[in-house]
Write a structure and sequence with these properties.
This protein is an alpha+beta fold and 118 residues long. It has helices at residues 8-21, 59-68, 94-108, 111-114, and strands spanning 26-31, 34-39, 42-49, 52-56, 73-74, 84-88. It starts with 7 loop residues before the first helix and ends with a helix.
Length: 118
């Protein structure tokens, strides 16, 4: 894996998008040394490398997104059958990424938080 410093611009982009969306209770953390966004102890977005994001995502939605936009959304053997998918950060626009971050936040957020967010 690449050094954490190489991932700072990608992580700053995620933080900016989550802040713009006003998603509550998001914390900055790390998973195995990789910068991550989490709610409590549950990460929902992890910067795998400078151009790849690991995102929490229900399996049915992951399959749909990978079918529709395989240039943006994909998985490796490690993610098959898991509630995570990979996103090519070099190809995805901020608007689309913002929506995916919102979906991932909603996927892991407790009900009490979801009630307060559109």
């Amino acid at each position: 894996m690449t050094e954490t410093n190489d991932r700072k611009p990608a992580f700053a982009r995620l933080v900016r998008l989550v802040t713009e969306r006003g998603l509550p209770d998001v914390t900055q953390s790390a998973v195995d040394g990789a910068p991550a966004l989490a709610i409590g102890d549950t990460p929902f977005a992890i910067i795998h490398d400078p151009v790849t994001l690991v995102l929490a995502c229900p399996r049915h939605q992951k399959v749909l997104l990978m079918d529709i936009s395989p240039d943006l959304y994909f998985e490796t053997e490690q993610h098959v059958g898991r509630d995570t998918m990979l996103i090519d950060l070099g190809r995805i626009a901020d608007e689309e990424l913002s929506l995916r971050l919102h979906d991932a936040w909603e996927y892991v957020a407790p009900d009490r938080l979801k009630r307060d967010v559109d």
